[in-house]
Design a protein that fits this description.
By secondary structure, the chain is of the alpha/beta class. The protein has 8 helices and 5 strands; from the N terminus they run E-H-E-H-H-H-E-H-E-H-H-E-H.
């Protein structure tokens, strides 16, 4: 296990940015645990994300997500958040206290190629909102919260994980 890195590394970004894929690879590289907050939500609620949104509504989903993110207590973990995590100021403050926030930045055109399951993915879309609107609304929030931004195009997930390791472990704040 690397001991010269942040206590935790929190990945943020749009659906399709590769947070879960990169997160698993990064956790293996560092000898850290891997936590996917979307899976925590699904397990805790015993429902898929899309089910929660369809049956309870978007605001109820956001409250569940905020509660799950705000209750995280972990160390030596790579945490892949859902794309909508940035809507909750309290949750993001908590995640920032847990470790380094890393934004995997992928351009809209590339994300649209990667995300082909929008109807079943559990996207937190407002009524009438499409993926382009979602991108325009969220990107400034990712940029606001990011301690580190990694360009997520022109590299495969392993290369992105290696880049994050180099940036976080060489630029780690004292824990």
């Amino acid at each position: 296990m690397r001991t010269d890195c942040a206590l935790n590394i929190v990945l943020i970004g749009m659906p399709g940015a590769g947070k879960s894929t990169v997160g698993v690879l990064l956790a293996k590289r560092l000898g850290y645990h891997f936590i996917d907050t979307d899976l925590l939500i699904q397990t805790g609620e015993q429902a898929r994300l899309q089910q929660i949104i369809a049956e309870r509504g978007l605001e109820a989903f956001k409250r569940v997500e905020e509660r799950v993110l705000g209750s995280l207590k972990t160390g030596h973990s790579v945490i892949a958040t859902g794309g909508s995590a940035v809507y909750s100021e309290p949750a993001m403050r908590h995640l920032a206290e847990l470790g380094r926030l890393v934004f995997i930045d992928v351009p809209l055109a590339e994300l649209k190629k990667r995300v082909d399951d929008m109807d079943t993915r559990g996207l937190a879309l407002d009524p009438g909102e499409d993926f382009s609107h979602l991108f325009a609304r969220r990107r400034p929030l990712y940029q606001k919260w990011a301690g580190i931004t990694v360009e997520g195009t022109n590299m495969n997930p392993g290369q992105i994980a290696a880049t994050i390791e180099t940036m976080v472990c060489s630029d780690s704040r004292p824990e």
